[in-house]
Specification:
By secondary structure, this protein is an alpha+beta fold. The chain is built from 25 helices and 23 strands. Bound molecules: 2-(butylsulfanyl)adenosine.
Length: 716
């Protein structure tokens, strides 16, 4: 390749190395050396360099984690060796039986140790590395065949695209993909706001996410991953490491830059094993991810070989499952919360009860339907459970403890009016969620401000719930645009009540440390006030898509905002886009398109956008639009079907090119199909196309279609 200016190449290589180093510090060592903002700045610099010099983009660059294309479906692949499951033990007696069984099988003279690891509650994954490069990611499937989800795995920042030095040949590592609890809460919050069904637990959310056909969507979910097994420790004869123990394997995986969950321990005897299981049964909720047990594995690999496996699981390992964490308490009352889109969700207020090392006072109730279905009544004794969510849920009322007759608790009646502004609530047909329709409802305003200021929107860190409460209560801020008119004299000296979490020292005989939430009065000093103003000022320059996201349009999440901003690079264009134009954007369906129109058709919202523009907030730019290939959208609204094999590119690449130009690729031919692209050895889809009189394109014609348009790079 010619014409590469070497300083840029050097810098881009240096940046790639730095980014990988910091990803590893963060995900493998849990010990970051730089802030998120500094990390983002490195990534942004690399992105800008690669935009300016596309020839520098390497497939394993950290900027290339998101393939940006939606797949038609997953291929499947057979595992090199079946992915077995684990036997379970549910109490200490069963665990001891496991230990005795092993001792007998290995003979009295053999000394061996165990490794105790956390059992991550996610979905198992097999990653193949070839000469140190991530080549494939496959789900467990039925244990023999799984789905090839490489594009989705590449979006997981914990998974290195390139291993550190020394990893040669082809080998497979196995582990678990999971959704961190904070992400789980965020995703469900967004889904509740949008009136979408919630994920029951982080595992379902992770599994659902991994099976999503759009890697760009997967990337927004911030999955994590841990590896715990090397299936074929190097096929290459060049430098086969001779691992003697599982502990050495884990050390080697970590040294290659793979994420290994750091709490594993070698246990020399059964008592140490028991200590680990007991300790984690207590501490499991202190982790940022969901764990449902401790996995116990024989450490010595030669002993494992002698123990062997059944058809389902290895004899050298077992999972010690934690007991379910449940408690009984009184449901004092049911409150309702109002979200930024007006969604009104019920919350259970409980008599405080200890559960898994924390004091629980609230539980989620999802919606009116759930309360009715479970017949949960204020005043009931209820069974609460701490599952994957940070917030516990109510399993059921204890009906046998309900007083009979007139003194007994009455069925719950969902409020008819908004608790904040008293507007009559509405529930559109077919939806589970009641809504407050009043756009200026104070509760909605507070939530809108919170969303607008959040890290992933306009990123104003200093603007927390208590300050928002104060600013709105005093009438200093009546909409998001007002934030840009705050000044130092107004903010300095402002007094507001903040909720502070404090550790309470152990008091009772069991010595348990608890937390209490206390309301404390705070005074806004000049320094904090100035820092907030700086952040507000800085927010004016966030990417345009973040502004679109920050507006809080119903159903428009981060991914939707990115798609909209790519297709309509200025606010002016987005405001005037009609339904057809909106729907022709990849990733924007009829529901989102209608929500966008509804939002901008509302005069108040248009005024708000005008005020944000006047304040200097980034409203997008045409220049950026022209530079982005994603904005040559000449296939917008067109549907294409691919059949046969293309010689000049893979099916994925073809689909990608079509998607970039705004077209949709679908699996079967119908009257709505615009073109059928026929490669070599086309299938029955070509016959169907001819039958229906659909235009077919051979490979040269297809290349002209996409090539011509891409070269033009203009907006049509
Ligand atoms: S070892 C042959 N280690 O639990 C042994 N599994 O219930 C393979 N899991 O399918 C598994 N954390 O998906 C192992 N530290 C860990 C694990 C773990 C979670 C999952 C894994 C497995 C399932 C069995």
């Amino acid at each position: 390749m010619t014409g590469i200016v070497s300083p840029w190449r050097d810098r881009s290589e240096a940046l790639r190395g730095l980014i990988r180093y910091h990803e590893e510090r963060y995900y493998v060592y849990d010990d970051p050396e730089i802030s998120d903002a500094e990390f983002d700045a490195l990534l942004e610099e690399l992105k800008a360099l690669e935009r300016a010099h596309p020839e520098l983009v390497a497939p394993d660059s950290p900027t290339q984690r998101v393939g940006g294309r939606a797949l038609e479906g997953f291929e499947t692949a057979e595992h090199a060796l079946p992915m077995l499951s684990l036997d379970n033990t549910y109490d200490e007696r069963e665990l001891r039986a496991f230990h005795e069984r092993l001792r007998r099988a290995l003979g009295a003279g053999e000394s061996y140790t165990y490794v105790a690891e956390l059992k991550i509650d996610g979905l198992s994954i097999a990653l193949t590395y070839e000469d140190g490069r991530l080549a494939r990611g496959v789900t467990r499937g039925d244990g023999v065949r799984g789905e090839v989800v490489t594009a989705n795995v590449r979006t997981i920042r914990a998974v290195p695209l390139v291993l550190r030095d020394g990893a040669r040949g082809r080998f497979e590592v196995r582990g678990e993909v999971y959704l961190p609890l904070s992400e789980f809460a965020r995703v469900n919050e967004e889904r509740a706001e949008a009136g979408e069904p919630l994920f029951a637990n982080p595992r379902n959310a992770a599994a659902g996410t991994m099976r999503n056909l759009d890697p760009a969507m997967v990337a927004t979910r911030r999955l994590g991953a841990f590896v715990y097994q090397a299936v074929k420790p190097l096929a290459s004869a060049n430098d086969p490491p001779v691992w003697r123990t599982h502990a050495e394997t884990l050390e080697q995986l970590k040294a290659w830059g793979l994420p290994v969950e750091p709490h594993w321990r070698v246990c020399a005897d059964f008592d140490e094993l028991l200590d680990q299981c007991r300790a984690w049964s207590e501490q499991r909720h202190s982790l940022p991810f969901e764990t449902d047990g401790v996995v116990i594995k024989v450490n010595e690999l030669d002993a494992r070989v002698r123990l062997g496996a059944t058809s389902k699981f290895p004899r050298w390992a077992t999972a010690f499952k934690f007991p379910a964490q449940q408690a009984t308490t009184k449901l004092i009352r049911i409150d309702v919360n109002v979200g930024r889109t007006g969604a009104v969700t019920p919350v259970a207020v409980l008599e405080p009860v200890g559960l898994g090392g924390a004091t629980v006072t609230f539980a989620t109730l999802h919606n009116e339907e759930e309360i009715k279905r479970k017949d949960i009544r204020p005043g009931d004794m209820v069974l609460v459970e701490r599952g994957g969510d940070v917030i516990p849920k109510i399993v059921k009322p204890i009906v046998s403890m309900r007083p009979a007759g007139a003194e007994g608790p009455k069925p719950y009646v969902f409020p008819a009016v908004c608790p904040s502004c008293e507007s009559r609530l509405v529930r559109p047909d077919g939806e589970a969620v009641w809504r407050c329709p009043n756009a200026s409802c104070p509760a909605r305003l507070r939530r809108s401000l919170g969303h607008f200021a959040s890290r992933r929107a306009m990123h104003m860190d200093g603007l927390g719930p208590s300050l928002i409460e104060k600013l709105t209560a005093d009438g200093l801020v009546t909409n998001v645009a007002d934030l840009y008119h705050l000044d130092l004299p107004t903010l300095t000296g402002l007094r507001f009540v903040a909720a502070v979490r404090r550790k309470v020292p152990p008091t009772g005989p069991d010595g348990e440390v608890t937390w209490e939430i206390r309301q404390e009065e705070r005074r806004f000093g000049e320094k904090s006030a100035q820092s907030l103003l700086d952040q507000i000022e800085r927010s004016k320059t966030v990417d345009f898509w973040r502004v679109v996201y920050a507006l809080g349009i119903r159903h428009v999440g981060e991914r939707g905002a990115q798609a909209l901003a790519a297709a309509f690079p200025t606010m002016e264009r987005l405001i005037h886009a009609d339904l057809d134009a909106l729907q022709s954007v990849v990733d924007v369906g009829p529901v989102v398109a209608a929500a966008v129109r509804e939002f901008f058709d509302e005069p108040h919202n248009r005024q708000l956008v005008d005020r944000l523009r006047d304040a200097g907030v980034n409203m997008g730019s045409e220049a950026q639009a022209a530079a982005s290939p994603a904005t040559s959208r000449s296939l917008a609204g067109k549907t294409l079907v691919l059949t046969g094999t293309l010689t000049s590119m893979s099916r994925d690449e073809a689909a990608h090119a079509i998607a970039r130009l705004g077209g949709k690729v679908v699996g079967s031919v119908s009257r709505k199909t615009t073109f059928v692209v026929a490669g070599e050895a086309p299938g029955s889809k070509l016959d169907k196309a001819r039958e229906l009189g659909i235009t077919t394109l051979d490979e040269p014609a297809f290349l002209e279609l996409i090539g011509g348009i891409e070269e033009e790079g203009s907006l049509r």
